[in-house]
Design a protein that fits this description.
two-stranded parallel sheet
């Protein structure tokens, strides 16, 4: 079985002001722990970068360097890095 992740899930997970943050982080953590394959398509990542760094969307938008996929655990070979006990902890925050 496999799953694909939507831009909104990444945005909710990185937005500490969102009432959906906890659910998004829990979902990403569960998906990252496997064993399913999780797809993060490039349009999803580009959409996340565009929205998460936009000053009219967030009061304190992420910098492009902080929002880029490698800061979320995506390596150059397009795989998601499973990081310790909380894989979703690599998601940047808008705090």
């Amino acid at each position: 079985m496999s799953a694909a992740c939507d831009t909104n899930v990444l945005l909710y997970a990185s937005d500490e002001q969102s009432p959906r943050q906890r659910a998004a982080v829990e979902l990403l953590t569960r998906l990252a722990q496997g064993p399913e394959i999780v797809y993060l398509f490039w349009p999803v990542l580009i959409g996340y970068l565009r929205i998460a760094t936009h000053p009219s969307v967030f009061e304190r938008p992420l910098t492009p360097a902080r929002a880029r996929p490698t800061s979320m655990g995506c390596s150059a070979d397009r795989t998601f890095a499973r990081q310790g006990s909380n894989p979703a902890s690599g998601i940047p925050s808008h705090s």
